[in-house]
Amino acid sequence: MIGIFRNVCLWVDDRLHVSKLFAATAGHHVPKSSGSWFYVLGSATLLCFMIQLVTGTLLAFVYVPSASQSYETLMYLSYEQPLGWFLRGLHYWGSNFMVGIMFLHMTQVFLFGAYKYPREITWISGCILMLLTLGLAFTGQVMRFDEDAYWGTGIGAAIAGRVPFLGAQLVQLMLGGPIINSDTLSRFFTLHVFILPGSVLALISLHLRMVLTKGINEYPKPGHIVRRETYDQEYAAIIKKEGVPFFPKAISKDLVAASIVIFSILFCAAVFGPKMPNGPADPTQIVTVPRPDFYFLWIFAVAALLPVYTETFLLLAGGPVIILILFALPFVNNTGEKSWRRRPVAVITVILIYVVLGILTYLGNASPWSPEMGAWTSATTEKSRVIGRSPLELQGLVLLQNKQCRNCHAIDGVGGHRGPDLMNIGTRLTESQLIRQIIQGGGNMPAYGNKLLPYEVEALTAYLVSLRPEGQPPARDSSVPAVPPKEQSHTSLPPKPHGES
Amino acid sequence: MKDDRMNTDSSKEPEKCACEGQAKAGRRDFLLKIGLGLNAIAAAAIGIPIVGYALSSFVQKFPLKSVSLGPVSNFPEGTTRLASYRNPYSRKWDGDTAEIPCWVRHISNNDFQVFAINCTHLGCPVRWFDESKLFMCPCHGGAYYQDGTHAAGPPPRPLYTYEWWVENNELFLKGGILPTLADPKV
Prior knowledge:
The complex is a heterodimer. Chain A contains 20 helices and 4 strands. Chain A is 59% helix and 2% strand. In chain A, helix 4 crosses helix 5 (84-111). Chain A is mostly helical. Chain A starts with a helix and ends in a 35-residue tail after the last helix. Chain B is α+β, with helices and mostly antiparallel strands. Chain B is built from 3 helices and 10 strands. A 4-stranded antiparallel sheet of chain B has the order 5-6-7-8, with no helix packed on it. Chain B has a 3-stranded antiparallel sheet with strand order 1-10-9, with no helix packed on it. Chain B starts with a helix and ends in an 11-residue tail after the last strand. Mean pLDDT of chain B is 90; it is low at 1-6. The chains are: A mainly alpha, B alpha+beta. Chains A and B meet through helix 7, helix 8, helix 13 and helix 14 of A and helix 3 and strand 3 of B.
């Protein structure tokens, strides 16, 4: 019986060359030192992609990529389809984990000098995979086709519209027509489920092929210099001396990491669930605050913080320049030290990039530059900012609320943060400076000159001056003689220059 | 196999078979050229319509079309109101996305301004605040005065405006495309 089974196996192996395939792939020899916890990130990213392929395919059983029906099908998937919510959760968290682990993998590869000779194509194919993954993440959030997706696509179109000469055509190509509609969703769907995953599969083949032909990077030792002339022999010697078959000798940590990733995704999907659409893509519902998913918040922040004159250039050229730098890296820095312990510039670069991205993401989430649209009706004022005020000042308080100043200005931290908090504005600007600022605007504040009557400006100014913290004198015009302290009361104003107000 | 035999033959009778071999090689080369040529033509024949289909929206022109915003009485003088129209290029399966909003400012008599909803910075929907007479954008803090001119923030130009006219007490505009800096006509 065993003999027959063995013969069948041998026959299959003879026809399919399974054992040769195994020896050339999973069984290929890797340096023993690469069986490290740092080396599990690549396989973990691949695992996430596999989860995305399976869950995405299953979601497509139900999801309808049509502007009129995608929302309903998502609702059906989330609330009625058995385990639909869980599959959506797995797909959503799978994407977050994929983006996160991919960047960790990229960081590790960079810090371990794995992009250097002879693994240039491994690095470049990895960079393209990174771009494709971000493309999948962006098109994926459009699949939710909610308010964020609608206006997010609009932001993409507005950036494309800044391309010189071809802008209008590129916008049409991106949207599949002159405006955001079902054609847009269909084309993003096609990108998300056919073109980008297909490209990822092709690139993964190349990426893994390079790992097999040029070998996985040995764990770098400080002081061990890569030279084009000697590296190949050195690597062959390492494999000969301490090479072990990837399966079963070096795969154990990958397996443990894989199970941790799967458990984490399962946990997040079960506990936090999928991200729900925040309302159907109805452009007439303009009471919305569009925000991208977290991995694009930093770009959202950059779009708010760039000086206007650099914006178009940096929005259009920034991406290509970053890509160019990434592609050029293995050629510019082809040999030399691999270990991060001897590459301080590499370490500082990584820290800098993570700090910058972290801060920009935090800012993108907080969006202090956006007016708080409901603050004028909802932001409260503490009692102490009301009691004891003169009728004129109280009128100013009402105006401050009604004229929507608080959409951009906070009092005691409550309200918008577009402009400065008004708590101590009276200690920084004199009455005449305040009046000028209100009437003429400037420094990113609109002018209110033709929206306020003179007495309203006076009332507003009086209230603003009165807001200053107790014991602090109001700002004073240095050209006017100071009023002796004893004559000052808490709410007194400095002498009014002629011709103002 | 055939070739192998031929080669063994040719070693015995070099002159004759060299000619035959050459003739065969010539035929094979010719056939290869024909094959490559035919496939080049076939690739173009199949490729041109495929690329044409894929890039059709890139080259297509979408002229603006007239649409009605309803009777003028919907927009009292001195107010700025949200209106919407059905996108003239909409499909049956567009759902809610077929309705395009815009801001109508009735200045006086037959004088209007009709603004696109999209902020000129990155296209987010601007909101009108009647009390402060400002349009504010929820994305990056852009603000515009009531006449659409830039008031604050990053927008590089005033709000996009529609071409409008009044006919039989009905307000019309020309619309149908998403305005961007490349194509600011709405």
